[in-house]
Each structure stands twice: as C-alpha cells, then as structure tokens.
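Database export, one record per block. Field names are fixed; values are copied verbatim from the stored entry.
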Amino acid sequence: MNNYKVFETDRLHLKPTTEEDAKFIFDLLNSPKWLKNIGDRNIHTLLDAQEYIKTKMLPQLKQLGFSNYTIIRKEDKVKIGSCGLYNRDGLEGIDIGFAFLPEYEKKGYAYEAANKLKEAAFKIFDLKKISAITSKNNIESQNLLLKLGLKLVETITLPNDTEELLLFKIDKE
C-alpha cells in the first residue's frame, strides 16, 4: 500500500483503507447513522468487513489510485471515520462520501477530511468534477456538501434502488 497517496491535515491522517482496518470498518458500517443514512452492507463479522474491504475498496484503489480513506486523529492515533472518492455504479463521475463514528461527529473532522480529499481530487488526481449523493433526510450531510462548495443539482435514483437521493456537484475551478 506504500505507493498510494496519503494525506494529512492539522488534526488528521487520511490513509487508504486496508484489511488491517477491518475492526474499524465493522464498527463504522454498523453504527446507527450509517445504517440509517447509507444502508446495511451486511457486515456481521470481522471476516465480512475484511471481505468488504478486499472486494469493494481495494480494487478501485488499485485501478484508480484512490478509494476509501480511514481517518485517523493525530493526537491519539484513533480511527474516527472514513472519507473517500468513489466510482459508484449509476453515478456519472466520482462521488465524494464521508462517515464518522458518532462520538467524533460535530467536531469539524468531516469537513477537514472531505475538504482535503476535494483538493486532492482536483489537484492530485486531476478530476474535472466531483459528485455527491445523500438521502433527503440527511440534513447534516447536505449542509457539509454545501460548505464544501457543492451545489444541489437534482434528485436521482441509483440502479437497483428505490430511494430518491439528492445529487450535488462541483466542477474544478
């Protein structure tokens, strides 16, 4: 994994998620807000979490050079959340997403991490635009996307899904 980009901010390290993060991914994907706002990924064991990382995150990292990043707080090296750039089925372009364990929300970490990845998307990975999707009831996510400079453009439904989602976009300046 050493040849992939890692990032840092004043308070955080962002490193590509690997199988060593399985316990953290298990906890995050089973947190109440993840289940409510993103959905059940059927991660019921640590082995499920490892397999999810191996089949859903690492192939994109190998193909595109970016994927999901585990967010680690510098002060105590605790894994607090995840943020990533995703090539998502049914969505044109690359999607930015974020999720944090409940005890690390409302501390500015999500903005700090997502803003760093937004900058990297345009400056390092040379993306021309970024998209983001969120459920209509996830006001916190919508507010963060707006703070990051994304604009609400329309509602969409992803393939094999029924929920209408809000689609946000931002172009490279």
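Remark 1: The domain at 7-127 is CATH 3.40.630.30 (Aminopeptidase).
Remark 2: The chain has five helices and eight strands.
End of record.
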